Amino acid sequence: MKENLPNHIAIIPDGNRRWAKAKGFKSWVGHREGVKRVDEILKAALDLGIPYFSFWAASRDNIEKRDPVEVKFLLKILKEKFLELAQREEIHKNKVKINILGRWRKILPRSVRAAAEKAIKATLSYDKFFLNILLAYNGTEELVIAVQKIADIARTKKKKIKVTPQLIKKNLWTSEFPSIDLVIRTGGESHLSAGFMMWDIADAQLYFTDTLWPDFSKEEFIKAIRDYSKRERRFGR
User: Fold this and answer.
1) What is the rounded CA–CA span in Å between residue 134 and residue 99?
2) pTM of the model as a whole
């Protein structure tokens, strides 16, 4: 399957906690299984040659408003994953650059931030594939910050600035990445959340599945890609 593949895929991995509850486990077990699933789906994306893969690890509300015990376990899992990614042979073999977007530097514990920085630093020079992890991320906040940056530029230069799509994109956290072609949301809820990458998904195709994220297999991922490959993107034409 090589024709009409998406260049940039974004995943909203919903359902970890519901998966755990259905099996009688604590919620953090669902997060642990969810992180394992990322490995399988990332490998499938690399095998298909899809260069940009964005994954929403946690919103800001997920971290600041949920049960502290659950959040503690989630952050522990993420810390371990960042340290593992920094050393993983597959990442270096495929020259995967790891980017972590959101307010994580502002709100996460020092040890988690250090692990994230290690993953970023270890892959900084790579440019073949891009793994973009959204952490403490809110799309509405991203756009507000971009507008504020533009306003600050105008105030500093003391002159009018022509606001263009290119200028807005330049000031987003995702400024280095192309627009998203396909958004996949698991978990059975057919909606987006927290302004998810709102600028970059303006022309994206959406794929919703009832499958909870810990059960979202490579085969399910390929099914979503095949569905995308059959669609005709008109871009308003």
Assistant:
1) 8
2) 0.93
